[in-house]
Design brief:
- The structure is a single chain.
- By secondary structure, this protein is of the alpha/beta class.
- It has helices spanning 6-14, 32-46, 62-67, 72-77, 84-94, 114-121, 141-146, 161-166, 172-182, 194-216, 223-234, 242-253, 259-271, 300-306, 314-328, 378-389, 419-424, and strands at residues 21-25, 54-58, 101-106, 127-133, 151-155, 275-282, 287-297, 332-343, 349-362, 365-371, 396-401, 408-409, 415-418.
- The chain starts with 5 loop residues before the first helix and ends in a 7-residue tail after the last helix.
Length: 431
């Protein structure tokens, strides 16, 4: 089964031969390697590129490592990286003319001194470089400095709902229910039973994601960070900060985990792309509010697996899905805060604050979006759209509900649409 990931393919195509190192980042198992080595590789062939001018190498592949006289078991046992000299010798034997070559490198952070190696290759006029990495530290300021500002990130997420639905056998309602519970890791799309899906996600969460974070950051054990992931999973879409989480550990876990350690662990989880932070933005004051903030999971299936599928809160999961969809479409997403003054019944003027779930920005475009699972009556509609009223600007304002429905506007021009219609129409924000 092949799922097209055209939005990411097009982002690679538009960056072709642009003089930058194209860096594909994303959580493990989200499809980075497939995008690079299958979809983009086949695109290059379709454009007439000779396969001998496309050099693929995966640094976590035992077969590829044997090509440069490296042994994956030796590397693991010695806890070292791949010898860059062996790799460079191999590549030099592949580039035999002045025609353009495409270098596709998978999990390149496993290569020793990869910054220096890539920096050297960047000087070659006939080499177009594409690499994948599973950690945001791969794009640290030091590395970008080494690249002389010529690193270009393409971040990919697990399958969007439209990608997931394209391979789903069933109605869109059934697909959405499955997607909300089991998420969009590509392997999930090919599994048939709930048991398969849940066991896969629970195992991956424990033996791949958490284990990887512990090893990468030299933690003594996985207990503290595992408990933190549980707490974060229970509180998606809620405002939080390290101090609040510290209090949660004291009251619920009967454990002590200080705010500074929590902040550090959240950084580790973000670096591994397991979670993403949405900061609060003062719409009128045009400034960011550093705390509190919201944390969302890169994949709802992994979030649910961490809680053994016991807390399937549809309201919060739908909000997480909308957040990820906006990022999938290339928007920068914040939580909106609108402050205003209002007179009380006694005539006293007081300062108030309301929240917009998402402020989505892309260049000059901006959208205000509310995630409202259900709007049963006019009172609820007024409650959801009140923050829109207080912005006093002309940017498009949208309410997304769970019920399937065609987009419609009220007399103020506010747009309401069903979440499945929003997710399946890539132009839904332009309606």
């Amino acid at each position: 089964m092949e799922i097209n990931r055209d939005i990411y393919l097009n982002r690679l195509i538009t960056r072709k031969q642009n003089g930058f190192i194209k860096v594909i980042t994303g959580i493990r198992r989200c499809g980075k390697s497939y995008l690079l080595n299958k979809i983009f590789y086949n695109y290059l062939l379709s454009e007439g590129v000779d396969k001998n001018h496309i050099i693929k190498f995966a640094f976590d592949s035992a077969e590829d490592l044997l090509l440069i006289d490296e042994d994956i078991l030796d590397i693991s046992e010695q806890n070292r990286k791949v010898d860059p000299r062996k790799f460079m010798k191999y590549i030099s034997g592949k580039i035999i003319d002045d025609e353009m070559y495409y270098l596709l490198l998978d999990e390149v952070q496993l290569l020793g001194n990869f910054e220096a190696v890539l920096n050297g290759y960047m000087r070659k006029d006939n080499l177009d470089i594409y690499v994948t990495g599973s950690n945001s530290k791969f794009l640290s300021s030091d590395i970008l400095t080494e690249f002389e500002g010529r690193g270009d990130e393409i971040h990919i997420l697990p399958l969007s709902f439209s990608e997931f639905y394209s391979a789903y056998e069933g109605t869109k309602e059934e697909a959405f229910d499955d997607f909300m519970v089991y998420g969009g890791l590509p392997a999930i799309a090919s599994m048939q039973t709930d048991e398969q899906k849940s066991n896969y996600l629970i195992t991956q969460m424990k033996n791949v994601y958490i284990k990887d974070i512990v090893a990468r950051n030299n933690l003594n054990s996985d207990q503290e960070i595992s408990e933190l992931v549980d707490v974060l999973a229970s509180g998606i879409s809620s405002l939080t900060n390290p101090r609040k989480l510290e209090n949660t550990f004291k009251s619920i876990k009967n454990a002590t985990l200080c705010a500074s350690t929590i902040d550090k662990y959240i950084g580790y989880l973000k670096d591994s792309f397991l979670i993403s932070k949405a900061e609060r933005y003062d719409v009128k004051g045009k400034k960011y509010i550093s705390t509190p903030y919201k944390l969302y999971f890169e994949d709802t299936g992994l979030r649910n697996a961490r809680l053994n599928f016991r807390q399937i809160e549809e309201t919060h999961l739908m909000e997480n899905i909308i957040y990820n969809e906006l990022r999938y479409r290339g928007y920068n997403v914040d939580v909106g805060v609108v402050e205003f003054r209002e007179k009380t019944d006694e005539g006293k003027e007081v300062r108030k604050q309301v929240e917009i779930d998402f402020v989505a920005n892309q260049g000059s475009k901006r959208y205000y979006i509310q995630s409202a699972y259900n709007i049963p009556d006019e009172e609820k509609w007024q409650q959801e759209t009140r923050p829109f009223d207080k912005t006093n600007d002309s940017f498009k304002k949208i309410v997304i509900v769970e019920k399937s429905m065609k987009p419609r506007r009220d007399d103020k021009g506010y747009l309401m649409m069903g979440v499945k219609e929003f997710l399946l129409d890539g132009d839904s924000l332009e309606l």
